[in-house]
Amino acid sequence: MILLLFFFFLLKDLVIFFEWEIFEFNSSNLILFFMFDWMSLLFMFFVLFISSMVIFYSYYYMQYDNNKNRFIYLVFLFIISMMFLILSPNLISILIGWDGLGLISYCLVIYFQNNKSYNAGMLTALSNRIGDVAFLIAISYLLNLGSWNFIFYLDFFFINKIFFIMILIAAMTKSAQIPFSSWLPAAMAAPTPVSSLVHSSTLVTAGVYLLIRFYKFLYFNENIMFFLLLIGSLTMFMSGLGANFEMDFKKIIALSTLSQLGLMMSILSLGFEKLAFFHLLTHALFKSLLFLCAGLFIHSMMSFQDIRFSGGFNLFFSMINFNIATLALCGMPFLTGFYSKDLIYEMLLMSNINLLIFFFFSVGLTILYSFRLMFFSLKIYMGFNFINMFESLNMIFPLIFLMFFSIIGGSILMWLIFPFVNLIILIFYLKILILIILFFMIILFFFMNFKNFNYLFLYLYKIKFFFSFMWYMQIIFCFFFNNLFLNFSNYYKLFNDIGWMEFYYFNFIKFFKNFSIQFLIFFKLKNFFNLIFLMILLFIFL
What we know:
Catalytic activity: a ubiquinone + NADH + 5 H(+)(in) = a ubiquinol + NAD(+) + 4 H(+)(out)
GO molecular function, one term: NADH dehydrogenase (ubiquinone) activity
InterPro entries: NADH_DH_su5_C (IPR010934), ND/Mrp_TM (IPR001750), NU5C-like (IPR003945)
Strand order of the largest sheet: 1-2
Helix content: over 70%
Radius of gyration: 29 Å
GO biological process, one term: ATP synthesis coupled electron transport
Mean pLDDT: 77
Shape: globular
Pfam families: NADH5_C (PF06455), Proton_antipo_M (PF00361)
Low-confidence stretches: none
């Protein structure tokens, strides 16, 4: 139904605003606005499609979990919050979905109740609260315009940059851009189906989608555009390096998500908002498939997540899906990821930017960690091949649909979003540059897996440690929060509750108590004559 509405709105170029007055009291009323256009309907279709596959997968993935129903309810609330964010042109109703995503993501990250999950959940919550505060400041700024419907005032925001800077900070925290990238790998403490939903089409894409809605403002601020380009390219470069030195299965895929988010932010900062939206949708398809296949592998490995134990699987259909998703991630022709990535890099070659080496080196890093995943998963002489593995048909069913769209989804979306042929003028060598990098990185990958090359990293272990820990960003960010915010209450307790304040406060109460008792004893009326005497004295003085 949503897909049919999308085709109708796309052909007619329709935009419908739906106003829902919830209640009215005197002259005050609470109104929710919803905007239906081709972009919101298409994104909503992808969110609901991937969510349905994830919920069906989760029902059998967590069938032995005692709190399975609670998990399903949390996922439903997560999807509803995303619906509010997609359909709302009003910052107040967006805030409902924005805070809903943050709150429910915290509940899902701490679903497995242990210390690691609690720490990851707290890091996720605190990182996102920075963006929430910036979002509240942006809402208060809209009081100057007399309305919270930002969609009507996009042409007026160039007068003052404060509003969009706050929106930019909120989008950077939600999409985990530098320096707020540390929470994304930590959020892998959540169950794998949640990771598939969060990292494909919901939480981390919310910031990119919000900036796509504010794309007109980017054209009026060249400094903000350059800042966003720099942050996006650094995020893409940093996460690509980290994924090549990481050994955790889910964290490698999470860092690949971070790399693609940096690419979306970068291409959005260059003014190609439709291209960023196109890559957002294609990335959602193959990344959800990649996470679901990884979850099936981890499920079969008895919850081991080290890729060095992941060889020798007898899960043939899941391995096929996993390799298709991995090839789509690195942009292999003619899979889904190729259509968006190839168009993005051809547009970059036609642009006059000076960060081109960052982008193409990041492409090489993407290919490198993609083939690294495939290599360890296909390695026969190691891993859990002695375990009796079987593929549940109920868990394979969602993979079939996602695999189908991961193969043909890119070509379909390209003709829908770009109905006219894009004019790209490049010489032959630049045209095939992406393919040259692809095959060069495949050769480099096999060279890096020789033992003699690996011995080199034994002498450069500090550099390897630096890259694998995301440039120490997680350590610095946690140290910053722990020492400046979380320990403030502990210092307050030491200095006040059990410090000198307790001594002085106790002596003050003791002094006041003794003074009150002496005062009452002095003026105590023992008999009626004392009362009369005091009344006479009072009459005389008056």
